[in-house]
Design a protein that fits this description.
Two copies of one chain form a homodimer. The first copy, chain A, has about 300 residues and is an alpha/beta fold. The first copy, chain A, contains ten helices and 16 strands. In chain A, the strands form three sheets. The first copy, chain A, has a seven-stranded mixed sheet. In chain A, helix 1 links the parallel strand 3 and strand 4. The longest helix of chain A is centred in the C-terminal third of the chain and has 11 residues. Chains A and B meet through helix 1, helix 2, helix 3 and helix 4 of A and helix 1, helix 2, helix 3 and helix 4 of B.
Amino acid sequence: MKLVFLGTGGSWPSKERNVTSIALQHNRDVILMDCGEGTQRQLMKSSVSFMQIEKILITHLHGDHFLGLPGLVQSMALNNRERPLEILCPIGTKDILNLFLSVGYFTRDFDVNIREVSDGECIDFAGYSIKAISADHVVPTLAYRFEEAPRKGLFDLDKAKQLGIPPGRLYSKLQNGETIEYKGKKITPEMVIGPKRKGRSIVYSGDTRPCESVLELAKECDILIHEGMVDDNLRDKANEYGHSTITQAAEIAKKANVGRLFIVHISPRYTLEDTPILEEKAKKIFPNTTLAIDLMEYEVKLRE
Amino acid sequence: MKLVFLGTGGSWPSKERNVTSIALQHNRDVILMDCGEGTQRQLMKSSVSFMQIEKILITHLHGDHFLGLPGLVQSMALNNRERPLEILCPIGTKDILNLFLSVGYFTRDFDVNIREVSDGECIDFAGYSIKAISADHVVPTLAYRFEEAPRKGLFDLDKAKQLGIPPGRLYSKLQNGETIEYKGKKITPEMVIGPKRKGRSIVYSGDTRPCESVLELAKECDILIHEGMVDDNLRDKANEYGHSTITQAAEIAKKANVGRLFIVHISPRYTLEDTPILEEKAKKIFPNTTLAIDLMEYEVKLRE
């Protein structure tokens, strides 16, 4: 499972940062979080195939978060995609997106299923769930939590030995959840397999002022991707326009006790050279912080 | 006057080539020819300011030629543009573009005037004209000819001396088109100023099969920018889908007796390494050919 930061800039693109999009590769599927203009080209520069995208989560209808949708969908069509694509989006935006995706001449032989998600809704998919809550921006905006399904517990070799079970086929059966009989004794999987292990979790804030709902959604997650548009000297203006500063993002990460924070949606006023300086400021509040740069990849390790 | 090739790829972007857009800087104005997705970012990487764009010429509504419009217009709005923007487009596409430019949340304090142009129409603007003709593609598509207004004739110093006019103020008057009287003799500007000199001309084909109408439009122009999607081994397929091969573009340039040919809309199947090989093939037919690459600039010199 890996994260690929396709676009880490905010509002409009700069030479160095494209507008927002983050890919989450989970097994063979890719979940795209937002899709600003130029995302398809960023995908082509990355290790992720645009044809593997399974779902796109749209946080809100500001251009820097969704204008890349029609180009991406049309390129999928030109490359003969057949399997459906699912787009999750805020309530009230489905018809607009359907219309937006229909403009111009092209043929498309796969379905694009657009699904509006309400505040607090949690949807189960094979192997993971996605929960959405309302963030605090100037237009209706969702934040999303990706939660991997719990994994099986660990097989306790010591316990198996204590019970006298010989290694081999019977271990496999127990691992697959079967109850076995050995020397007249019934042995259930629970006797040798530990509790289920929590899956990995990623929270993406979308655009937002610092807010309780995102803080709540992010609690104890492995990775929080939070917007942090500007340095703290511009806090009032950022908050007025529905955004967070870099240090406010770090404060949310700290309060939510997340594993790692990636800050995205960085204003085009900053160059790449400013990145380490800004990152240092955030790290003073939450040390495990990275100011993401375009095409950065991060392997999300399994929890033990 | 210069040309900036912002995107020289066709159909979908590759790592090396963005989809179609070419900027023509004429004095302080910029005329953009097509605006594929990601054009605004290409502009930010170029020497041309996206805020200086005066007009956008759209050839047709295939995604790789117009999906960059809403992002560009919204970035202009975010950067407080006030002066109107004019978009020229084929008949029947105005309402679609107006709708397309209205999707999502944003405020815009300048007018976007969309004007449909019919086959053969020529529009005069201050300092230049733009003529459109129908190209031969699979959907309604225009090709455009930019024609600079003729410049004043050259002042003939020898003639002025022969007429005995002393250099200075009287020369200026004649150059400004005034008739003067010198030693009782009436001297008209025509007596010392040569014929008007032809302005520079640029023709852009849009997507097209090789066709008579583009050939006619391109006659004797300084610069022809013609699509040439693939090598000649794919001629039948290219023509079937409404495109030209690289050598077909060169043949048009030769027949039209243009000054220089730039080939654009190069298929993503080719890498930059293929460029010189393809260019060589075109040069065998029309030596003054360049296969454009992204962000290439070309100064369009004055004719003498």
